[in-house]
Write a structure and sequence with these properties.
By secondary structure, the protein is α/β, with parallel strands linked by helices. The protein contains 16 helices and ten strands. It has a six-stranded mixed beta sheet. A hairpin with an 8-residue loop joins strand 4 and strand 5.
Length: 415
């Protein structure tokens, strides 16, 4: 051997590491002890907790290496926490090659960090279709389009060819889909502007995503769903049985072009309303704009340590309660007024007024218990009927068709 072997030590577990400094001190002592034996050239110690394991899995899924020729490129000035960055033009045909696999199919996972999924033939996209259809305008595509922003973990350059690894297209989702759909119409003299950035710093990446997407009309609340929390939540949604499974629409129109029933798609606003009602006990607030709900509950909702299943359960209860009311002839106003009140009462009937901490094992167990009730149709319908009886009784007592915050305690007391 030309040198001594390296030693890589990994401690992996499914919990979360909170005391980082203590772990680092422990490993540093351990590392020095092994290093002192003089057997290894380099000793590395790493902790893989649940967050790092999830990130590693996501990275493997995204792992991809492609080569793209970039013409007339310039190197951008040095930026903190950015390894290198370039701006240039890419032939539209070459760009389509970049975003497709060997079978010519679009690599949709490249757009996971976009705020919005492909919006179809909306006004802006229809104009792009028109630009490509006109040979003269297509030639000026790079001038008429805002361009593409790509973030990669690694960039290697050989002349005009750029090899990029583990990359995401963080801005330009609409342009990418339109170019792909028109791939047979693209000429050799049509180009698109591209910014290519190499960085592994999450803060920098998040800032680039937010800034580049702010050029279009997107409310600040929409950027919440770009957090890893919501990517993990999307995965948890997919873990439930087919009969009860819903689909979390983390990005607008995410499932429009898939074989998914639209009434089973849970939008971010409806997810927020369901959780605020069922687990935070605020069904009377669900009529408010979801941005206000996020702001007023910012320390209680979508926290990194929260058990993800509680969010799925809230959406499932809201969905199946609404289905029950609809199937049994309740009018639309009743469903809109009381769907979330019923979800809260169903949870109270199972768990009582006290609710476990959002990040506890007890919450995990409660979610499983609530899911078991949901799977047993007769049990679930009995919960709904009891909740309806309580709501009707309280509404009659107060001679009011609407049960606001003042009467919520009366509802749960009756249960």
């Amino acid at each position: 051997m030309s040198k001594n072997p390296d030693c890589h030590i990994v401690f992996a577990y499914t919990g979360r590491m909170f005391n980082v400094s203590m772990a680092e001190n422990t490993f540093e002592t351990f590392r020095k002890e092994i290093e002192g034996k003089g057997v290894f050239d380099e000793v590395k110690c790493n902790v893989y907790d649940s967050t790092k394991i999830t990130d590693a899995c996501r990275s493997i899924k995204r792992s991809i290496k492609k080569t793209v020729p970039i013409k007339n490129y310039s190197t951008l000035p040095s930026i903190d926490n950015v390894i290198e960055s370039f701006i240039g033009t890419v032939k539209c045909k070459d760009y389509v090659e970049l975003i497709t696999n060997n079978d010519g199919l679009l690599l949709t996972h490249l757009f996971e960090d976009n705020v919005r999924y492909y919006q179809g033939r909306n006004k802006v996209n229809s104009e792009m279709f028109g630009t490509i259809a006109d040979p003269q305008q297509q030639q000026a595509f790079a001038l008429l389009n805002n361009g593409i922003t790509i973030i990669a973990k690694e960039i290697r350059r050989t002349g005009d060819n750029f090899v990029i690894e583990d990359f995401q297209i963080v801005n330009g989702c609409q342009t990418s889909f339109v170019l792909y759909e028109n791939r047979k119409k693209l000429s050799d003299d049509s180009y698109v502007a591209v910014k290519l950035i190499s960085s592994t710093d999450k803060g920098v990446i998040d800032s680039i995503v937010k800034t580049t997407n702010s050029q279009t009309l997107i409310v600040d609340e929409a950027f919440e769903t770009l957090k890893d929390f919501h990517k993990d939540l999307e995965t948890v949604y997919g873990s439930y049985g087919v009969q009860h499974r819903l689909f979390y629409e983390r990005r607008s129109k995410q499932y429009d072009f898939q074989n998914v029933s639209q009434n089973k798609v849970v939008s971010f606003p409806s997810q927020t309303a369901a959780y605020v009602a069922m687990f935070l006990g605020q069904p009377q607030s669900t009529h408010r704009y979801y941005g206000e709900l996020l702001k007023s509950n910012k320390t209680k909702i979508y926290q990194d340590e929260d058990i993800k299943e509680q969010y799925c359960i809230a959406s499932m209860y809201a969905f199946f309660i609404d289905k029950y009311l609809r199937d049994n002839g309740y009018d639309r106003n009743y469903r809109l007024s009381y769907k979330y009140h019923i979800a809260l009462l169903c949870r109270v009937m199972v768990s009582g007024n006290e609710i476990p901490k959002a990040n506890s094992r007890e919450m995990k167990a409660l979610c499983q218990k609530l899911y078991e009730h949901l799977k047993e149709t007769a049990e679930f319908e009995l919960l709904i009927k009891n909740a309806i009886n309580v709501i009707d009784s309280v509404a009659k007592t107060y001679e009011s068709p609407f049960i606001g915050g003042n009467h919520l305690s009366r509802l749960t007391d009756k249960i």
